Amino acid sequence: EVGSLLTIQVRRLSLGQRMRLELVAALLHKPRVLFLDEPTIGLDLIGQQKMRDFIYEYNKKNQATVLLSSHNMDNLVNLARRVIVIDDGRILFDGIFGELVERFAKEKVIKLFLAQEGDIKKIETIGTVKKLTFPEVILSVPRSTAAVAAAEILQNFPVNDLTIEEIPIEEVIRRVFKGGLAR
């Protein structure tokens, strides 16, 4: 997708176009270790996804180690197996992605849409209500009891839709920084 850019003067390229060409230049010699600093900066949503897909495929195909620094949490969620969170030179967390979530997200979010109004005050006994605006209800429940809580909701309330979700990764990372727990 960069062939048409090769004849354009660098100063006339957008940031996203320069990012794509810089990645091509970095990969010319098929490095076994790839250092990428904010690889999706300057890219639109489609470009960001294409860049993530490309990095993922490059890693898979070439068995390369990819060291990625990013403020874009989608990059973390979609590309990282191991995560190192650093604050002012101090390592706050070093481990696999799943461990990061397990350690700093002790709860899950249940989002549901009720089919009809009723005694929805009873739902407060199941979890911490984050939003209660009929028909939408958002609850926070302990990670260990999320499935039981969802089953209880489905048994006792007329539900059109229910999902169990992780808390947003931005919140998980915020908790790492707030806790400042070194490992």
From TrEMBL:
The keyword 4Fe-4S does not apply. The lineage of its organism: Bacteria, Candidatus Woeseibacteriota. GO terms for molecular function: ATP binding; ATP hydrolysis activity. Residues 9-40 form the ABC transporter domain. Pfam families: ABC_tran. It comes from Candidatus Woesebacteria bacterium CG22_combo_CG10-13_8_21_14_all_45_10. Keywords: ATP-binding, Nucleotide-binding, Transport. The keyword Transport applies. InterPro entries: ABC_transporter-like_ATP-bd, ABC_transporter_ATP-binding, P-loop_NTPase. This is ABC transporter.
